Task: structure prediction
Amino acid sequence: MNNSILLNSIAILVAIYAVLGFSDAILLHLWKYQLYKNKDTRKEHLLHSIRAVIFPIVVLGLLVFHLEGFYLYGFLFILIFDLGFQIWDMWIEKEARMRFGGLSSLEYTIHGFLIFIHSAFLVLYVIKSFHRDHFFRIDGNIFLNENSLVTMIAWNLIPGACLIIVLHFVLLLPYFSKDHDWEKKFLFKIHIPGLN
Result:
């Protein structure tokens, strides 16, 4: 398979992943369920905060840079670590969501798609790296990607991802673990099928 086709496919998958992840993280976790607010859901929010930090690194490694040698191995470790965090997040959700009557069908579906897409771009990335012999370089090298579509997608995702990092960590402050009158104006009022 052509390297450019692989890279474009990875970029499209990452963009879809970002849209679904944004919907899950912002609309459901932060706005509807306010996971940062309750003691039994703050652990899940902390996991989401850590994964929010990892996401721009993933975007840079997948779409902006070509990595070789030990840089590639280090980046693959980050990708697998992130996938492990995603699985751990799903593992603790049952307990964290008891107060909401469990995880909604919509969230189960979104999480299934997210893991599938994450696994798909990870596999395509490994194929691309084998195709270009990046695994077999003894010394580590980093090159900028010259594919304009891919870098455009990356540089459009990173600012939003950085804002989401800030939002996640600001919401960890003790002030946001209490109810406030101003929050009532922002309550979730949208009816979405499959969402309790």
